Amino acid sequence: MFELTVVEEFSAAHRLPGTGGKCEALHGHNWKVEVRVGAFELDKAGMVIDFHELAALTRQVLAELDHTFLNDHPFFRERPPTAENLAFFVFHNLGGRLAGDRVRLVNVRVWESDRTAASYGP
Fold first, then answer.
1. In 3-state terms, what secondary structure has residue 74?
2. Bridge partner residues of 27 (DSSP)
3. Is 47 within 8 Å of 27 (Cβ atoms)?
4. What's the order of all strands across the beta sheet hosting 27-39?
5. Domain that holds residue 104
6. pLDDT tens by residue, 38-96
7. Residue of 97, 37, 28 lying closest to 65 (CA atoms)
8. Number of folded domains in the chain?
């Protein structure tokens, strides 16, 4: 399978109540989101998908999170806004935006720092 990766960023604040640590307090991150897609066949242009198209679709999903307090977002009212749940959110919101059956979403990885990340994939 051919794979392609794009990386986008957004900034947002959150709290993680019940964790028993400093993350219970309000704090923020410059989140980095890595999106991997794949296809068994390339399109007529010889691509999985155009990098710019995938980046634009990813930015559409991240736009509703950028410069927000994540705990106030409807998705995170039922679950904490952890890196794991952010990866799940992006995966499911981006997957429906990919046209056709040829390109599939392989994995979404969300970095909250240069050394810590969580990912979600099927």
1. helix
2. 14
3. no
4. 68-69, 2-14, 27-39, 104-111, 117-120
5. 2-120
6. 999 999 999 999 999 999 999 999 999 999 999 999 999 999 999 999 999 999 999 98
7. 28
8. 1
> Which pairing describes strands 104-111 and 117-120: parallel, antiparallel, or unpaired?
antiparallel
CATH number at residue 45: 3.30.479.10
Q: What is the length of the chain? A: 122
Gap between the Cα atoms of 68 and 58, Å rounded: 17
Instruction: Quickly tell me which residue has 């799940």 as its tokens.
Output: 88
CB 62 within 8 A of CB 8: yes
What backbone phi and psi angles, to 5 degrees, belong to 100? 75, 180
Global pTM reads: 0.94
Closest CA to 31 of 52, 7, 15, 53: 7
